[in-house]
Amino acid sequence: xxxxxxxxxxAAGDPDRIALAAGGASLTWRALADVxxxxxxxxxPALPSDRPARAVLLTSESGWEAVVALAACATLGIxxxxxxxxxxxxxxxxxxxxxxxxxxxxxxxxxxLLERCAWPGGDGVLRVFLDxxxxxxxxPAPSARQPVTFACLQAAEPVGQxxxxxxxxxxxxxxxxxxxxxxxxKTSTEGRQLIDLVDEFGFDADDVHLFAAPLWEPVAxxxxxxxxxxxxxxxxxxxxxxAGLARAIGDEQITTAVVAPDTLTALLAGPAGRPVAESARxxxxxxxxxxxxxxxxxxxxxxxxxxxxxxxxxxxxxxxxVLTPEESLVAPLRSGRPTLGNTxxxxxxxxxxxxxxxxxxxxxxxxxxxxxxxxxxxxLPRVEVGSAGSARGGGAGEREPFRLTGELGRIDERGxxxxxxxTAEVVALARDSDxxxxxxxxxxxxxxLPCLRDTAVMRVxxxxxxxxxxxxxxAVAVGREVTGRxxxxxxxxxxxxxxxxxxxxxxxxxxxxxxxxxxxELLESVLPIITLNLQLEKAVQQEVSA
Length: 546
Known about the structure:
Layout: H1 4-13, E1 18-22, E2 25-28, H2 29-43, E3 55-58, H3 64-76, E4 80-83, H4 89-99, E5 103-106, H5 111-116, E6 126-129, H6 132-136, E7 148-149, H7 150-154, E8 170-176, E9 179-185, H8 190-201, E10 208-212, H9 218-230, E11 233-236, H10 242-251, E12 256-259, H11 261-269, E13 284-288, H12 294-304, E14 308-314, E15 318-323, H13 325-330, E16 335-338, E17 342-347, E18 360-366, E19 372-373, E20 382-386, E21 399-411, E22 417-422, H14 433-447, E23 452-455, E24 458-462, E25 466-475, H15 481-495, E26 501-505, H16 519-545
């Protein structure tokens, strides 16, 4: 996040300009400098002397206090890892034990959740409550350190000299299948990222940037940091309130935005999204994930204009591909060109580059790559690729390290990376490469159907269903469920004839902030309906046979 020196620089140039806005409150650059200076001073007594200092941000709400907390930590050179409160107390306790924070910032009513999390040394950690709800919603342990409110923290007297900075480290939450890890970077790349983002998207100090994604999403948080570093205004909006989002776009005269994929879908689907087109200043909207369907792309073009950029990135790789509004109309949705600073290759089993159009495993090189996970030296697998296969070139015989990702793909004739499958985190429970490929192609086919707003393909092996496909979908309009179900059923029979498919209309499909479908929540909502349908079909068959 932006540091106090940069905030003071912007405050010197235009002290009364709005830097942050959230929930009806706003901070000028001058006010932001004051509260960040106070928060940093309040943290100094909590810094340990026997180990590296680290902090954690635990909140489901994007308030200005959370940004101030991140900026205070950046000023002190402390890595602060935003975590998702939805992970649950057991998983959060495990991650907190791994991070070993000296301070935890709590907001969004997560006070009681934090008290239930147990980890070694947790009683001695400074707990800072960002809002009154989090401070009152708690049952402190008798031995726990006395927590403080954020108002008390930022009211601390400024220190004459800040502690010397510790070696650089950044921490990001990295979902890895059913577990979560912490991606670590040992080298600061924020300056280079800022230059590349300006070149890529044309961000500048006159922008008003809307942040409508969870704070624990590292790519979205990096975009907010870049706008603040430029001196632009950042507006924090709830990512679960499409109507409020639409109002913010118009009232705040938003020019750029990063929006969670499920939030964007809800915004476009409801009546709240229709007035958004009247905001003539909106010129660039970025959304994460590779699962958005053709309906979202087409509707965004109709209602918002040519502004939607489909981007992809992870905690391990950073922002790595982008599909521009014009490209998204004609290119496969699961594709994109490398962002500045990244190089993609498709390699075979021997680690050598494959020719254009041939599918293989995707390898990535770039300065945004993480160094390792916090739980040891584990990292993305490396592959050494000769300079002949690298888009960056190099001297004769030079070798450049690439990291292997968990995806399969090919490079098309225009140099775009087209994802064609997965080598890891495949929804199929029983690993079968032919079946995995068929499922991925089926999902790609369905996302391009104009009669659907959204869909998901899940292979399950359950006592009630056996080995089967579960395909929930959202019809393009009310009353179109029958035609949508017919189209999906036909596509399933064509692509995956060896598995029975249970196609069922739903109202919503849950997503994670990075665009991954929350399969556990989705299955929990649709399985009772599918089971009931099967029971009804069985009863009808028994009546007919009788």
